[in-house]
Amino acid sequence: MTKENKFPLLNTIDSPSDLRKLSENELPQLCSELREFIIDSLSQNPGHFASSLCSIELTVALHYVFDTPHDKIVWDVGHQAYGHKILTERRKRFHTNRKFGGIKPFPSPDESKYDAFVAGHASNSISAALGISVAAEMQNSNEHVVAVIGDGSMSGGLAFEGLNNVSSTPNNLLVILNDNNMSIDKSVGGMSQLLISMHSSKLYNKIRHKIAVWFTKLGILNRERANSLTRFNNGLKAMLYKQQNIFEGMCTRYFGPIDGHDVLELVRLLRLVKDMKGPKMVHIHTTKGKGYAPAEQNATVWHQPGLFDPESGERIVSNDNIPRFQDVFGETLLELARANDKIVGITPAMPTGCSMNILGKEFPKRVFDVGIAEGHAVTFSAGLAKGGIMPFCNIYSSFMQRGYDNLIHDAALQRVNMVLCLDRAGIVGEDGPTHHGAFDLAYLRPIPNITIASPYDEHELRRLMYTAQLPDMGTFVIRYPRGKGMLTDWRCRLEAVEVGKGRVLREGNDVALITIGPIGKQVATVIDEAAQKGVSVAHYDLRFLKPLDSEMLHAIGKKFSRIVTVEDGVITGGMGAAVNEFMSQHGYKPQIRCIGIPDRFVEHGTTQELYRSCGMDNETILETILNI
Fold first, then answer.
1. Which residue numbers are catalytic?
2. Fewest CB atoms within 10 A around its CB: which of 38, 84, 297, 390?
3. Residue 198 and residue 285 in contact, taking contact as beta carbons nearer than 8 Å
4. Which 8-state DSSP code applies to residue 90?
5. Is residue 456 within 8 Å of residue 480, measured between CB atoms?
6. Burial of 300 (0-12, 13-18, 19+ CB in 10 A)
7. Segment 72-94, tens digit of pLDDT
8. pTM, full prediction
9. pLDDT tens string 248-273
10. What is the DSSP letter of 322?
């Protein structure tokens, strides 16, 4: 069957204006076609799967009811926005999703007028959408603003900061809570269903609005009293429900929970709440991976499953024996925890993503998943450390940016003994600019009282982890990249590394090549190519950015007049900058060329494609060595 025959309705939809020409009775078929289109597409071009399938009906209903792009939809994270992309002028290019030069992995205003705000990190949608809504009010615009947030993102502190402000700032924001795991409120019994229908009925809201207008004209109702009235209304509802939720306690009108896979009911409810004044929340229940049985049964695995056979559901997995860095971390953490009963693991909602589930399987009471709350993860770890526990806190590098103040104030300042493992450091590939771990070396380097290290390979990762949990090591940061390592025989004896000591990997006489982290392994072949062209290159693995190996750097400064630094991080303020500063401060005057991520946000593509675009590929490094 051709795609034209398989997707007869979807192929007529190039923009939401086309969607709004359909009859309501055609919407269930469109949802079915859109779901099948995503399954077919992602089986060949991997991406975020289960989350996008769970939001199909919501996406169709939103674009059917609201006048996008005049009306604004702010997606939280953007994992669930593939349907949105396909319906907003990107269906014919969707096969380029996440590919170098193709459609971006997450919503971005740079790509489409339908993308109201950048989405990549969790919990920002309510705050951003509130700002857009208030701006519309201040400029007398009639645009509607909707924030779509998942139950996981609701665990982030920023989401609650936004909700708190929603209740105290004049706005007409609509928040949609897409709940596919955590039950915030349950629809139980006939009374519950009656109240849902009543609170979303035209008659109820017409009467409620007329009373509000009447009270305002009489001078009885101002904003403060309106909040009191909302609290009274919510209190009455809570008494009848015999339960209350946090949103009603924050003066936000609440509707739900309703079936998020009933597109016609969603359309009905969205039409009814669309023009209501004041902040509203619609709570929907959905199923991750909806419509594809393997994903429904194991949403975690199918969050981003890679290539798979859409008919059988069989995932296409590489059979080589080289593990991912995260798996070496997980296995090593388990080894250390068996020997040290003070060791625990902390993760902000990524036990599988960082392989801390390996520890959790054997010691479930020694792993703490704190939800999407990176700042809390750091401070919680610092508190554990103060109490005599040895926490290994694992956070993706780009997500750690949200815990920066916590690291300074609650860990480094107090000299607590804890280990912060930064997964996905450096260029991460297809997830793009919101996920590249580009900045950690630069933003960590100025902080006192911390150790910063990056392993050359899996053996070094194990040794650094062992070293970090030894007594009196303070706050110890270890960064490592996404994806597979280099070694099949990755298990090695656990032994301590001298803190602040680098390694001479190869002697040479003409140029000093200084690297930090696994990118050093990549560029090792460049040295052989340089030798063939008559240039003798010495290779130094700095290993520690803080404290620097001053003895090794003095030796380099005295011997070499030409230095090339290579790091998988931003050049500005990073390892190369540290080497430059050292040489300048101690009177050495070599020519120094720093190679790393340039002063721009790097888009998406394979790691090697992005290395080439950043001038971090082997050819560019060789050219730099030969021409310095």
1. 288, 374, 402
2. 297
3. no
4. I
5. no
6. middle
7. 999 998 889 999 999 999 999 99
8. 0.89
9. 667 788 888 899 999 999 999 999 99
10. P
